[in-house]
Amino acid sequence: MSRILVLGGKGRLGAALARKWSERHDVHALARPEIDVADLAALQSLLEAAEFDVLVNGTGLTNVDRCETDRAEATTVNAHAPGVMAEAAAAKGARFIHISTDYVFDGTKASPYIETDAAHPLGHYGHTKLAGERAALEPSPRHLTVRVSWVFGPDKPSFADMIIDRALANDTVEAIADKTSCPTSAGDVADWLEPFLASDLPGGLYHACNTGACAWRDYGQHALDCALQAGAPLRARTVNPIPLAAMKNFSAPRPPHTAMDTKKLSTVTGLTPRPWQDALEEFVLQKFRHSSSGIRN
C-alpha cells in the first residue's frame, strides 16, 4: 500500500484517480480552497510537511483561451508549480506523476504522436504545459509526465456530457469535424497508472489515452448513439459537422490532429488501452437508468 497525495482531487481526472486508487492505497486528495498551486510558497510549505510515497499533479489552468489572456497565471500554474512539486517529491524519495496534454504538439503529423516526437506548441497553454513537463521530469528519473487528451468521466462534466445535454434540450446539435484526437476515460487512466504506484517501473514521458482517433463530431455522435441505447429522450439524434475555422470565439490556436500512440505505456505496464468507443459506451450507459423517462443517475 502506497501513501498517495493527489493535487486537483476534484477535477475530472484527479477525482477518478483518488477514488479508484483508494481501494488499495492510502490516498489523500486536495483541491481548492485547501490548496492553491498558484501560491508557490504555500505549495512548497504544504508539500514539505506532507507525507507521501507518490505525489500526483492533477491541477492546471486548462482553458486554452484564458491562458492566452492570463499568461502570468498560466505560467505559474502550468509551468512553475510542477517544478515545485517535482522537487518536493524528489527530496522525499517519492515518485511524482504529472498530468500533461496533447496540446504540446502542433497537430501537423499525419500519424499518431509518439513520446520521442518533437513538441511544438501553438499557443501559450501548450507552451506552459511543455515547460511543466520538463520541470516535472528534471529532479528524478522516477518521475512521470503523462499526456492525456479529451478526458471524460463521472466526476466533472466533459464534452460527452455537454453534447448529450444539448441533444436533450435542442432539435439540433453540432461539433467540429476537422479536429481529431483520442477520447480518454478517466477511470481507464487510473487503471493504466496504478502499476507505477508501488513499483520500480521506469519514469519518463508517457502517452495515456484510449485507442483510436476521431473528430469531435464523431465523439459526440457516439455519445448520442449510446445515450439512445440507454433510453435517453433525445430531441437531436445527429451531430451536425462544423469546421474548426467557424469557431470565431476561439482566441487561442488549436492543433488540428493530436492523436497519440500508447505503445510505450503498454510495453512498460503490460496493459493495452481499450478502444475509446467501448470506454465511452460504458460511461454513457452508466450515466443513464434504463427507463422510459431516461432520467440520469
Q: What layout of secondary structure does this protein have?
A:
Layout: E1 3-7, H1 12-21, E2 26-30, H2 40-49, E3 54-57, H3 64-69, H4 71-91, E4 95-101, H5 124-137, E5 144-148, E6 151-152, H6 159-169, E7 173-176, E8 180-181, E9 184-185, H7 186-193, E10 204-207, E11 214-215, H8 216-229, E12 239-242, H9 263-269, H10 276-287
Helix pairs in contact: 1-7, 2-4, 4-5, 6-8, 8-10
Can you put this structure into words, describing what you see?
With 297 residues, this protein is of the alpha/beta class. The chain has a domain at 3-158 and 184-212 and 256-275: Rossmann fold (3-Layer(aba) Sandwich), CATH 3.40.50. The chain contains ten helices and twelve strands. It has helices at residues 12-21, 40-49, 64-69, 71-91, 124-137, 159-169, 186-193, 216-229, 263-269, 276-287; strands spanning 3-7, 26-30, 54-57, 95-101, 144-148, 151-152, 173-176, 180-181, 184-185, 204-207, 214-215, 239-242. Strands 2-1-3-4-5-10 form a six-stranded parallel sheet, with helices on both faces. Strands 6-9 form a two-stranded parallel ribbon. Strands 7-12 form a two-stranded parallel sheet. β1 (3-7), α1 (12-21) and β2 form a beta-alpha-beta unit. α2 (40-49) runs parallel beside α4, α4 packs parallel to α5 (124-137) and α8 crosses α10 (276-287).
What descriptors fit this protein?
297 residues; alpha/beta; Rossmann fold; 6-stranded parallel sheet; 10 helices
